[in-house]
Amino acid sequence: MGRHQSIPLSHIITSPRLQNRNAAAPCLRQKLTHSQATIEHLDTLKLAIKRGERLPPVSVVRAEPERGERFYLVDGFHRFWAHEHLKRETIEATILDGCGLVDALIASGKANQNHGLRLTKDERVENAWRSLNLPETDYYRRMNKTEAEAALGVDRETIKKMRQKVRQRGIAAGSIDPALTGKAAEAALLEYWNENPALETWRLA
What distances in angstroms separate CA 139 from CA 89, 144, 152, one per listed residue? Predict the structure, then answer.
C-alpha cells in the first residue's frame, strides 16, 4: 500500500510522538545517546548507503495541506538519520494513505513490525499503550483484542490488561458502572477512555 517516491529530507517532519521505539523519550535525537545498539545500527546503515546498497524506503504520511509539500516520518527513523548524517539531500520513501497528524499517529503505531532495528518486547508494549491512548483518535481503542494484537504487535493478554487498567480507573472515578456487561460495558469503557486517555507510560500506569 502506498506509492514510492524520492523525497527531499528538508520536506520531512520528524516528531517524538511518531517515534515508537521509546514512547517516553522527550526528544528523538536523545535516542542516539541512549543505546549502543542504536549507534551500531546507525553506523551499519551509513556504511550501506556509502556502498550504494538499496535500503527499504522510509514510510511517510502527507502533512496537512497548509504545511505545503511536507510529510510526517512514521517509520525508518534510523535510515532518515543515516541519510541526514551523510548530508544526503533525498531519501526513498513510501507515501502511505492518509493526510495529517492523526493519520500519521495511527500509522506510527503499526510501524517497525517488518524490518529495521526491531522493537524489544518492552518497546512494543509501551508503543501499544501509547497508541491506545492517543488523544486525537480512538482508532486503536475501537479495535477488539484480536485486531489490536495484530496491529500493534503485542499479545492479547497484554491488550486485555491495558483495557482492564482503564476500566478499573473508570470504576474508581465513578464513571463506569461495574455491573455493566457485554456491549453496554464496552460502550462505557470507550466513552470513559475517550475522555480520559492516559498520559503516563504503561510502566508507570
Answer: 34, 11, 12
Secondary structure class of 127 (helix, strand, coil): helix
- State the maximum Cα–Cα separation within the chain, in Å, rounded to a whole number: 63
Cβ atoms 67, 104 nearer than 8 A = no
Q: Tell me how far apart the alpha carbons of residues 90 and 189 are, in angstroms, rounded to a whole number.
A: 45
Count of residues for the chain?
205
Please check whether residue 96 is in contact with residue 59, taking contact to mean a CB–CB distance below 8 angstroms. yes
Q: At what angle do helices 182-195 and 156-172 cross, to 10 degrees?
A: 80
pTM of the model: 0.81
Q: CA-CA distance, 103 to 107, in Å (whole number)?
A: 6
Sorting pLDDT into bands at 50, 70 and 90, what band is 37?
confident
- Please count the other Cβ atoms lying within 10 Å of the Cβ belonging to residue 192: 17
Q: Is the pLDDT of residue 35 over 90?
A: no
SS3 103: helix
**pLDDT for 110:** 83
Is residue 28 pLDDT above 60, yes or no?
A: no
Q: Scan for cell 470513559, then name that residue.
A: 192
Q: What is the pLDDT at residue 40?
A: 86
Determine the average pLDDT of the residues in 131-139: 95
- How many angstroms separate the Cα of 184 from the Cα of each of 3, 88, 198? 41, 54, 22
Residue with the three cell numbers 532495528: 117
